[in-house]
Amino acid sequence: MPMQCQFWYIFRALILMAPLMSGSLEASGAQLTVTVRNADGAPLADAVVTARMMNGATRQAPIPAKPLHINQHNTAYIPFVTVIPSGTAATFVNSDLWGHHVYSFSKSKRFEVTIAGETESKQVVFDKPGIVVIGCNIHDRMLAYIYVSGDGVSAKSDKTGVVRFPTLKDGAYNLTAWHPLLASKRKQPAVEVSVNNEKVTDREIVLKLKRPKKKKKKRY
Q1: Do 49 and 157 touch, CB atoms closer than 8 A?
Q2: Residue 165: which CATH number?
């Protein structure tokens, strides 16, 4: 094929792809990165940040088509904190050889399921927003949290304390943060931020956590 024809086909292909490429950029939305730290300045994992649009409705995360899996391994829940949109179904997978009795007395979801070793529970639908505390009637030390989001978009911080919102609509947002060890459960720390599609916006939230209780020395 002559060189001129090759250039023509490449040029024509770029013209046809231009609308698709621009459309994908528009669909990507604004990018917001939030770093969560504790009062000592250390990065905080397992914190949940929720972004709610101040003027207008916030696009909520879609409900997963398949049930979410929460694992039980070495007598511990994995992950420790799970974030799901309201209406999500979840199953509890027991990877241990021994049985577990999963339960919750939380207002937003009360349930209990008994799971034999190396089996899986039936589906549990979390249909109301709220924080669901998960325990085990057999092993008291087993504890986990399910953050069921309602309005807004919620995401969990990673090991470096970072939460990423890659596809937010341009506008002003109110950010609230929650953590299982938050000192005050009544009032979540809030930060206002404006995001746009032209740049990545960075913010930082500091959470005050409960101090671990000091163990009393036994007298002999």
Answers
A1: yes
A2: 2.60.40.10
